[in-house]
Write a structure and sequence with these properties.
Elements (H helix, E strand, L loop, with lengths): L1 H23 L8 H24 L1 H8 L5 H11 L1
Length: 82
C-alpha cells in the first residue's frame, strides 16, 4: 500500500513539472525581432498621428472648453476620435 502511494506521488509530481514547463515555454508573439520592431514602430506612428490629429482639432478644443454637453456634442466627440 505504501509503495503504491509513493509511486502515485511521483506521478503527480511529474505531471506538475510537465505543466509548469509547458506554461513557461510560451511561443513568441512575433516571428522575428525585425517583425517585432516593425510592428511596434507602426503602432507608435499610428498613435503619434492620432495624438497630433486630436491636438490640432478645433472641434475637440471647442468641446473641451464647453461646460454643458448635449447629445450632439457627444456624437461629435466620438466622430472626431474615430
Amino acid at each position: 500500500m505504501h509503495k503504491k502511494q509513493f509511486l502515485n506521488t511521483y506521478k503527480t509530481v511529474d505531471k506538475l513539472n510537465k505543466e509548469t514547463q509547458k506554461t513557461a515555454e510560451k511561443p513568441s508573439l512575433y516571428r522575428s525581432k525585425d517583425d517585432e520592431r516593425l510592428i511596434k514602430d507602426f503602432h507608435y506612428a499610428k498613435f503619434q498621428k492620432n495624438l497630433h490629429n486630436t491636438q490640432q482639432s478645433n472641434a475637440l478644443k471647442a468641446l473641451l472648453n464647453k461646460k454643458d454637453w448635449s447629445e450632439e456634442d457627444t456624437e461629435t466627440l466620438l466622430a472626431a476620435l474615430r
